[in-house]
User: Which sequence fits this backbone?
């Protein structure tokens, strides 16, 4: 059983098909198909049911997938630990950061990190928190910034807490309020980020607790575009206060959102029990140095 066949199989499952898996691991679709067939032949049973362009797991496939994810993650930890034992000078930091908040919280730290550790190669993955947790789980990255809470499979180090604010057009009837609740916005259209952004989950979960069924006018992955849509009066947007203040707009008013459980609580996370390289530990120390007590 080879690592390459396990990796191909895991990516087919995660991406939902062979063509997308091939793009993810920079291979061809035929090579990925051959690797999965080789794994099925070795195990002696079918692992995937192929329906059109989609592939779903068989019962045996579910067992193999769970084990394969752990094997691949342990391999990455093993290689990192061996590199440290060899005293290699050219380490690698594999870091995952989300689009929301990273330019403020983490971008200023890169120059400091590079100055202190000039031989460390930084490999950056940029996705929403949900996707970052997926690739962290399988060992493709060492650390990720994600919103709390996270599952028990991860350990974490707090970075920052921020309240959320609602972004309303300045002439909106509720824009003069000092604070607002989701119940007061129940009849208003919302502007949300694309699926996979943990900020959406905060808003949707808070709406459920408040008995509000949000009407979504638009979705985007771009903060500036969301702000412009709010300024145009298309709907109500939500951002952490710190980020909203940096994206101030003359046609937008920020109103504090006071519903329980709507705090933006970001942390650096890593797999529980995983080996952390010197490069990863150095990044954690730097974020603790600059963001402890924020």
Assistant:
């Amino acid at each position: 059983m080879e690592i390459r066949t396990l990796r191909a199989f895991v990516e087919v499952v995660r991406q939902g098909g062979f063509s997308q898996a091939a793009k993810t691991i920079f291979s061809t679709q035929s090579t990925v198909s051959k690797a999965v067939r080789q794994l099925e032949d070795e195990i002696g049973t079918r692992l995937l049911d192929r329906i059109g362009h989609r592939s779903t797991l068989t019962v045996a496939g579910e067992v193999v997938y769970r084990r394969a994810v752990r094997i691949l993650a342990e391999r990455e930890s093993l290689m990192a630990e061996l590199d440290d034992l060899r005293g290699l000078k050219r380490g690698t930091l594999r870091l995952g950061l989300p689009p929301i908040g990273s330019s403020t919280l983490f971008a200023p730290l890169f120059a400091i990190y590079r100055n202190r550790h000039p031989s460390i190669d930084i490999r950056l993955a940029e996705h929403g928190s949900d996707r970052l947790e997926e690739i962290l789980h399988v060992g493709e990255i060492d650390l990720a910034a994600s919103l709390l809470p996270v599952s028990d499979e991860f350990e974490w180090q707090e970075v920052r807490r921020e309240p959320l604010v609602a972004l309303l057009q300045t002439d909106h009837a509720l824009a003069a309020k000092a604070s607002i609740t989701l119940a007061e916005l129940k009849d208003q259209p919302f502007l949300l980020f694309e699926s996979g952004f943990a900020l959406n989950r905060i808003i949707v979960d808070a709406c459920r607790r408040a008995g509000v069924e949000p009407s979504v006018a638009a979705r985007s992955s771009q903060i500036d575009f969301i702000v412009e849509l709010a300024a145009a009066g298309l709907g109500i947007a939500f951002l952490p206060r710190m980020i909203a203040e940096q994206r101030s707009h003359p046609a937008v008013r920020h109103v504090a959102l006071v519903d329980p459980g709507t705090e933006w609580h970001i942390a650096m996370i890593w797999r529980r029990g995983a080996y952390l390289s010197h490069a990863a530990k150095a990044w954690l120390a730097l974020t603790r140095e600059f963001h402890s007590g924020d």
Notes: The mean pLDDT is 88. The chain has three domains: 3-70, 83-159+265-291, 161-263. Residues 11 and 229 are 36 Å apart (CA to CA). Residues 161-263 form a domain with the D-Maltodextrin-Binding Protein; domain 2 fold (CATH 3.40.190.290).
